[in-house]
Amino acid sequence: SINQTLETIGNGSLLMSASMIKPIICNLRRKQLSVTVNDIISPSSPGSADGSAASNGDASSPTIEEVNEFKSTVWQHLCQYYEESGPVNDTLWTATLVDPRFKRSYENHATKEERNKILRRLKEEVGETDCSIDTDRHEESITGSLQHVFGNEFFSGSSRSEVDRYLNESPIQLKDNPLHWWATNASQFPRVAAVARQYLCI
Known about the structure:
elongated, mainly alpha, 57% helix, 0% strand, 11 helices
């Protein structure tokens, strides 16, 4: 719940960084700020012992139009500070991608074109400018199928780009510290680790 999240943040057990911003905004857009049938106040809502006031159109109960307008206003204000394109958006996505807690977020919240752009930007940051996103994904799929048939011992992790190998690692839990993860795994992904040090300090 929101209260549990705020409590976790308040007691300092969750590392706060810019990498959290895109997942939070995307989740708000997809869930809390999307209009659903649940936005209509049900007859059993608080404020009436038997629900009769709500069911009879209690003036204090917001209509679906009012709820929609409120959510749209909140989203517009968010977009003023966090535009969906441009340098700030690119920076936030890169920060998200190098955080092992949230690196899969772009797969759920971005279009294919946006995902390619996000990956290409990270690969440019780590010096993999000659990598083709679509080719990498195709080769990764083929390699994964062959590994399944022949076993991992016949395949070297160096055949894929460092970024792809990093992204193929399972994400860590939200409560885990990404800095501790990088301290342990930096030797496996040295170039991505260098980028992570820049962005996770924001």
